[in-house]
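Model the whole thing, not chain by chain.
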Amino acid sequence: MDIKEELQEVFRDVFDEEGIVISNEMTASDIDEWDSLSHIQLIVAVEKKFKVKFQTAEIIKLQNVGEFIELLQKKLNK
Amino acid sequence: MTNNRINFFKEFFSSPDIYSKDGVELLSLSSKFLKCEAQYRSENINDLQIKKIAVLGSYTTSHLVYVLRLFLYKEKIAPDIYEGEFNSINMEILNDASVLYSFKPEILLLLTSDLDIKDYPPLFSTTEQINSWVDVKIAHYKNLWQRVAQKIEGCQILQSLFIIPTHRPLGNLEVNYIFSQTNCLNRLNMKMIEAKPSNVTFIDMDYLASYIGKKTWFDESNFFMSKQGFSYDAIGVVSHAISRIIATYAGRVQKCLVLDLDNTLWGGVIGDDGLEGINLDPNNAVGEAYLAFQETVKSLKNRGVILAVCSKNEEDAARVPFEKHTNMILKMDDIACFIANWNDKASNLKEIAKRLNIGIDSLVFFDDNPAERQLVRQFLREVEVIDVPSDPALYARAINEARCFEWAQLSSEDIIRSDTYIKDVKRAQLEQTTQDYDLYLRSLTMKARVINVGSAELARFTQLINKSNQFNLRTKRYTEAAIIQMMENAEEYALKCIEFEDKFGNYGIISSIILQRINDTAFIDTWVMSCRVLKRGIENAVLEAIFNTAKSWGSKWIVGEYLPTKKNNLVADLYKELGFAKQTKGEGQGEQKGTIYNIKPFSVEIKHFIEIIGQ
């Protein structure tokens, strides 16, 4: 499974929606339940799943799912 | 799909799984549960108690509320929750028109933070200056507590005390100067405890933070982004602790620790290894671990937890270590009910509850054998089964972590209680040797004191009302705050309690009664009694006290109501047996409908063998 698919699983669990298919352009406005609170929940769930830790600045900079995947890739390659 | 979910959560709430989930898993579960909560609630409404809870915090509480909801359902509480805005404690309480006051919670959770404090005393402040700084803070909280008490009848406040932060401007010198932030907060916490009124219960957040480890507790990044007061790793432990405290206000109280023997209280098997062979050796690390566990158990007994033994053994062999092993810390006199036989443990636990006259759900089971634990979990879901680790060195920790014996308050009756249970056993032996029951009752030389409830009796009076499930006619629960309001309204309410003793000892206060004067009627709003004193004629003595109050009020009628619950079948016919007549017309007080009975004061003859002192 690649990063995108694994990330998609986390999305499906956090937003409790089996049908979610993530894309690079996707943003918080595309998912009803994606608010500031579930955002933090998402970040923590991703950190746990991929065993990484994001910095505060990295999290608040994220604009869309594509950037999220990029950031993850960068972290995992280190 | 929803039905699958409902079934999943049904299973989940009756298993201990919730305790081993991390923050991320708990959040994921709570968002799934939220979607089927309404259906779960309506399908299980007979099993659940509804509680109105308001949550106000100095930080964002949404995630905590999410997870707390799950833990409350685990305690069979269906919460109606009002959650205030971020940092809204003062706003909600000081504003008469706030949502808090229209919501009228039964429980108000106030989650404060040391970040509320911006004005620490300057360095080199004197004790006097620090005290006046503390006084200002205390006055602020006193004002908040009073306003809540005035505006919301019977509301119990649960408030977190301040956590000592890890940020220490003075480093190790913090602990060396009274004016350091650390010590100012310590002093403030202590003064808060001294100023605590009865409508407030503190939550020891600093303990919880230290228990988890403050390094893990604080998640600065998370705080800066979303103002969460603590990390996701802490959310389960905090919710667990708070849900246990709330559960005590719903009458869910565990009273009795049931212990296995072999490899639980000592190393080895007494039946095989014999007195010399079991390990209770203080010079052996494993033996020491068993002794330390016994020490922990003994300290629970000293605070009023009843101890019982449930072991697969020959009874004579099982008793030997208690009677003959010099290293044993627990003695036969510490054990209120001792069962050692070859029956299955589920049946034995039922027998223990029966003999001690307590509910099965007030038992906590501690057994090193996973098969026995599984059996009890399966057949007696009401019993709290502790996950016992395989290393006896961790037994004491396991019992602390389970947070079983959270009570709303402590009374001196609790402390003597575990001993009176042991006396009960001796009394039962006397009962067997005395043929004529009246003669037996006479021989007990019983005395009862009828007391008008005052501040000295308040804690125990309230505790009885909230803990009694079996001898409880209407199962209405009241907080201390609500009781105080009734005490102050002597025109309308009479609050009586009964203190009881016999030749075997003093039981303290064993019955609480609330009478309400409604026109020419004395209504028995509450009548609860400890089941340890059943069949002694105390019911008749209480009736006499009720007659006396009704007479002093000039009441023509005394009205009582029986509201059936799962647990109070014991008193289903109490009023009938005491000579009340069943009322065919009319309905009970409040929304639930029970069976109504009435009687005229002193219209029946009262017989008992109890000397009544004072009225």
